[in-house]
Amino acid sequence: MSYEKVERAKELTIGIKQTMKAVANLQVEAVYIADDADRRLTQKVELLCKEKGVPVIHVDSMRRLGKACGIEVGAATAAIKKSG
Q1: What are phi and psi of 11, to 5 degrees?
Q2: Short-list 1, 39, 46, CA closest to 19
Q3: How many CB atoms lie within 10 A of CB 58?
Q4: pTM for the model
């Protein structure tokens, strides 16, 4: 799956609010959305990404996405920040 890229990322933004802010400020290169997260919440992130032209990668598990981000809890969304 796509978790390897998240694990190798130098800088991440984790969670819906932080991801939304980073996307709005055009600071991310890709956004990861867990398919088992609350659709009402992730839909807003997905729409903003589409509007800003940010690629969205769907992953199957909040728990695995959180683990890939190096946290002990699930993550509904995560974004890889642009370097430099």
Answers
A1: -135, 130
A2: 46
A3: 13
A4: 0.94
Which residue type, as a one-letter code, is found at position 75? A
The encoded tokens of residue 63 equal 């728990």
User: Three-state secondary structure along 23-70?
Assistant: HHCCCEEEEEEECCCCHHHHHHHHHHHHHHCCCEEEECCHHHHHHHCC
Q: Would you place residue 84 in the very low, low, confident or very high pLDDT band (cuts 50, 70, 90)?
A: low
- ∠ at Cα 49 (47, 52), nearest 5°? 110
Q: Which residue has the tokens 């920040």?
A: 81
Nearest to 23 by CA among 2, 37, 42, 40: 42
Phi, psi at residue 67, to the nearest 5°? -65, -40
pLDDT for residue 28: 97
Residue 12's H or E segment, with its range, is strand 12-14
